[in-house]
Amino acid sequence: MKTIKSSIYTLLLLALAACNSTQSLQEYYVDNSENPNFLSVDLPVSLLNMKKTDLTGAQKDALESLRKLNVLAFKKTDDNVAEFEIEKAKVKSILQHKRFNELIKMNTSYGKATITYLGDDDAIDEVVIYGDSEEKGFMLVRVLGENMNPAKIAQFIQALQKSDYNGEGLEKIGELIKG
Prior knowledge:
The protein is an alpha+beta fold. Helix content is 40%, strand content 31%.
C-alpha cells in the first residue's frame, strides 16, 4: 500500500512538473508538424544554390555559419479561428521566454512581425522570425546555425540577393501568404 501511494505521489509530481515546464520552440514545431492546420517545411541552406554565386569572404563566412531553415505556418480559415487564437498565444508565450532576445519588431503590409534570437550577441545559434496576420494566419521561421553574427546575417541577406535561388520548396508557403 505504501509503495502504491509513493508511486502515485511520484507520478503526480512528474505530471505537475511537466505542466509547469515551458514548451520549447523546437517541441512546438514537432508537435504541430502533422497538424492539418499547419504547413511545415525544412530547407537546407544548400537549396539556396549559393555555391555558384560570387561571394565575398564575409558572405562565405555567413553562409558557412548557417545550417538550415525551419518554416512552420498556420493557415487561418473560417473553421479554425479559435485554434488560430490558441496557437498564436502559445507561440507568443514561447517567444517571450527570457532565453529569447528581441532584435526588432515591425508592422508590415502582411501583419505584425518580430525577429528574436537565441545565443550571445556575437554568437547567435538561432534566429526566429515570427509574423502574424488576422486574415491569413501566422508563420514562424527558424534560421539555425552556429555562432552566427548579426553582421554576418546582413551579409547573408546580401548574398541571397546575388544567388539564383528562385523559391524552390516554398511554393506552398507562397500560396499561404497570397491567401
